[in-house]
Amino acid sequence: MAARKGQLTETTPLLPTHSKHRGKRVFAAVAAVLAAGSLFSYLLLAYCNYSIADTSSKRLSSAAVGRYLHITDLHVDPNYMEGATTYSQCHRRPPHVLPPDYDSAKDGHAHTGRFGIPLAKCDSPIALINATSEHLKHEWAHKLDFVIWTGDSGRHDGDPEQPRTFDQIIQGNDIASAALRSAFKKIPVVPNIGNNDVSPHNELAAPGHKRARKTFRALERSWRPLVPKDQVPTFHYGGYFAKDVVDYDGRKGGITALSLNTIYWYRANAKVGGCRAKDSPGLAQLAWIRYQMRRARMRNRDIILLGHVLPNRDNYRPSCYHGYARTVTQTVPPPALNSSDSSEELVNVHAQLFGHSNVDVWAFVGQEAKWINSHDALLIATENVTDKRLWWEREVDEESGRFGKLIRDVWSTDVTMHAAINQPDERAWEDMEDDPQVHFTESADHIVPVVNATVKQSLPSDFVESLLKEFERVLVQNPPNPRLGVTTISPSIIPKYVPSFRIFHYLRSQPAQGERWWHLPVGTLLDYDVYWANIHKLNTKAQIDVRSFFTRLYRFSDEYKIDDLSI
């Protein structure tokens, strides 16, 4: 790509999309990941005086275009102290107790400003949260249709002198929720639970356990009224819920957001197992997704799937990853099984949005035929040999068995849950996993598995290498992958690199024939912009203008010469 005047060629953003015309877009995407430039250009921009010219050649101001915000990983830290050392996680100014080999020249505490510090193990100061809220209120509240907020509002537990408590996690969510509710008083905001929104870190017990009930109820109170009243029982049960966020203009239907509890699929959560056992909380959530997809089809609505931890083989337990990939990329029967509608239409998954990794990337998710075919034992024998549903998919579709009971008692009701649902399950969840047993510790950058020496298992420390392996697994298959989807990870507010967020543009109504995008279905993703705050500069200013606190870093269509994000 030729460099333009005033533009950094290192900036290599990575895209979302779904799966119809893969060809050039897929290979361009892989090349983008190889370049891995978005992360490093962020770091360069944060410390240099480069400016990015507004090179947008497209106008997205059509009345047919809607917009929404994806914001993630606020990691609010009320204990942040300006001028503190990064060694103390920005909690204490020097002098304080330091290790004998401590090198103050390498610590960078002199640069710890009021809005945070890039490239450090520090979380977000209240000043950054307030500035972000004010910027969004003045610049975006009147332009957006809804907001996606994908979790991790509690600070990290990295300071041994100030160990994080459950109440402090809820306090972080209180602050983040108040900031977003202040900025967006008139549009829907969809919250989500992250691995730093539970205590201990990464650990969440199965539905019915007293700690899980305490966590879900405390978060729902903290976010109130962002979880719809009719979804409160579902959230109190499993930490997930559905919310209608927009109705399309001029036609029936709209977008429904499904806020997922990815911690029940997360490898690092030792409190639950995989997604094969009939009473697995991870499998129950997959069943709930299928139930919601059937409802969406009946109501003519598209779906946004949002969660915290990105679905891939390194993050999810194998049975949960494959179950997720199968669930979100396959056809769903008509809501009425005796319906004359025998079409094989796939419920439209408008987008899959995640956070957690703090970087600006995207990845594929897809079924693998060899995995599906190797699990025929999971299929219940039927006289209809064309029925390839798994036993739990059949229970959801026919509202029978365990999942039929959950549909009737929890997922489709707005009354208080039946008392039995809140009873602790006698099953030992940690003993029911079908995958190799792995215990985890966390380093500064990634989860490190600690396993029996006889078990060969590892997680990649190189994020780009991990993505490339995922591309190869999903794209290079024989036979070819039957279904393919795309997940996107938005950059974070926490100044792990620099504070950033994404604005997505989508088709909210049908343009007249002959107008731009008239050939695309309503709901199609058209483009996205990434905005960033150069806190290296902002920390040096006595006064700031909140309207310009965040500026646009790039627009996807300009960088990749793609007219829209349809597949």
How many strand elements? 14
Biggest beta-sheet profile: 6 strands, mixed
Please tell me what the overall shape is: globular
β-strand percent reads: 5-15%
Average pLDDT, rounded to a whole number, is 76
How far the N terminus sits from the C terminus, by CA atoms, comes to 22 Å
Helical/strand content category:
alpha/beta
Instruction: Give the strand line-up of the largest sheet.
Output: 3-2-1-12-13-14
Name the helix and strand elements from N-terminus to C-terminus, one letter apiece: HHEHHEHEHHEEHEHEEHHHEEHEEEHEH
Our Rg estimate from Cα atoms comes to 23 Å
The helicity comes to 25-40%
Low-confidence stretches: 1-58, 337-343, 369-383, 414-460
Count helical runs: 15
Describe this protein's structure.
The chain is 28% helix and 14% strand. It has 15 helices and 14 strands. The strands form three sheets. Strands 3-2-1-12-13-14 form a six-stranded mixed beta sheet. Helix 9 links the parallel strand 6 (301-306) and strand 7 (349-354). It is globular, with a radius of gyration of 23 Å. Mean pLDDT is 76; it is low at 1-58, 337-343, 369-383 and 414-460.
Offer a quick outline of the entry.
The chain is α/β, with parallel strands linked by helices.
